[in-house]
Write a structure and sequence with these properties.
The complex is a heterodimer of chains A (about 240) and B (about 120). Chain A has about 240 residues and is an all-alpha fold. The termini of chain A are far apart. The relative contact order of chain A is 0.11. In chain A, about 85% of the residues lie in helices and about 0% in strands. In chain A, helix 2 crosses helix 4. Chain B has about 120 residues and is an all-alpha fold. Helix content of chain B is about 80%, strand content about 0%. Classes of the chains: A mainly alpha (about 240), B mainly alpha (about 120). At the A-B interface, helix 2, helix 3, helix 4, helix 5 and helix 6 of A face helix 1, helix 2, helix 3, helix 4 and helix 5 of B.
Chain lengths: ~240, ~120
């Protein structure tokens, strides 16, 4: 095939949603295969690998993100029904969850305040700009909630989405190793910490560790979203005043 | 499978409707998750179709974050300008959040997990 025909095919296909949808799935399958080959090692994180490969492809081909998203939005859409589907493992563990409702609520309050306020305080003390710090504070919460909170605090919604994803990947890679080091190995504590600090990506990692761990992560993700949305918007101004 | 997908979407839709109607601070799918959980309690559990469809979706939860994650390329400028404070704040606060949550729950439930072996 000559170069002209190749260019013509590329120009046509690169403008179609089909190309980037197919590539998103293909790159993800590759990432999953690598993850399996590495024996499920957390550092070989499927989201991190997929995003790195796709960003490289987009930059090399000069494709704008918006055109990529025209295709990838079909995958993005599945996030909604999949979040609803978290109710099934939650239902499976309901008795156990209700049996430890008290400790779960205490862990929620302590963990949520630690994650949110420390992000804000550290960012502010190191001299990050105001919109960056406001976008950092809700980073442990699932993307749509985090974006809503950041906007109310004067942050940037799309920047928040990036922090949320980076937090999720980082937490998914380091959570179980870190917790094991301090003697925390039970499914409930590891799962709840993963879901609280690293939302859906942490929950995906928790499901790789086991169904029970996943159920606790799903619960923590939902509860932390609710708790952060209700508390952070009025707690942050108090912290901001204290830091000045 | 279609029935299970329709059910999940219907609960998501109900969640979105409730969110808008009551001005709730939580996204529609999270409300839909709570509604489906309540429905499952009333029903006594999911049927086989819902269980297997949900299992397939949840096994690939990582995939659903890839399109939004790729948006990182839009913020390369700010990320490199403020790389240092952003990296330290993200890493430290995530580790602190993990430790605070995991240790609190572990210490509060330690006496229970030891009993039934």
């Amino acid at each position: 095939m000559n170069g002209g025909a190749m260019t013509e095919i590329w120009v046509y296909l690169s403008a179609q949603p089909l190309l980037w949808l197919t590539l998103t799935l293909a790159v993800y399958l590759l990432a999953i295969a690598l993850h399996r080959r590495a024996g499920g090692h957390p550092a070989v994180n499927p989201v991190l690998i997929s995003v790195s490969v796709l960003v490289t492809l987009l930059l090399l081909t000069g494709t704008p993100y918006q055109r990529y998203f025209d295709g990838a939005q079909f995958v993005h859409f599945l996030l909604g029904p999949t979040t609803v589907a978290l109710a099934i493992p939650l239902h499976g563990q309901l008795k156990r969850l209700l049996g430890m409702a008290g400790p779960l609520v205490i862990a929620l309050v302590i963990g949520s305040l630690t994650a949110g306020l420390s992000a804000y305080a550290i960012g502010a003390l190191l001299g990050a700009s105001a919109p960056t710090v406001a976008s950092l504070a809700p980073k442990s919460v699932t993307t749509p909630i985090a974006m809503g909170i950041a906007e109310r605090l004067g942050g940037l919604a799309s920047l928040t989405a990036v922090f949320v994803i980076l937090t999720g990947i980082f937490g998914a890679i380091f959570a179980d190793g870190l917790l094991k080091r301090v003697g925390v190995k039970d499914e409930a504590s590891v799962g709840f910490a993963l879901g609280l600090a690293s939302h859906g990506i942490g929950t995906a990692r928790a499901f790789q560790l086991g169904e029970q761990t996943g159920a606790f992560a799903a619960l923590a993700m939902g509860l932390n979203g609710l708790f952060t949305a209700l508390t952070l918007p009025w707690l942050l101004p108090l912290l901001a005043a204290a830091l000045k | 499978m279609i029935k299970a997908i329709a059910l999940l979407l219907a609960f998501q839709l109900a969640g979105e409707a409730l969110r808008v109607a009551l001005h709730l601070p939580v996204p529609g799918p999270v409300i839909g998750m709570a509604l489906l959980l309540a429905w499952l309690v009333l029903q006594g559990g999911p049927d086989d179709a819902l269980r297997s469809t949900s299992g397939t979706l949840l096994q690939n939860l990582s995939l659903m974050f890839v399109p939004a994650g790729t948006g990182v390329m839009l913020h390369a400028g700010r990320l490199s300008d403020e790389a240092w404070p952003i990296a330290v704040a993200l890493v430290a606060s995530t580790l602190l959040g993990l430790l605070a949550t995991g240790l609190t729950l572990h210490v509060l439930t330690r006496h229970r997990s030891g009993s039934p072996q």
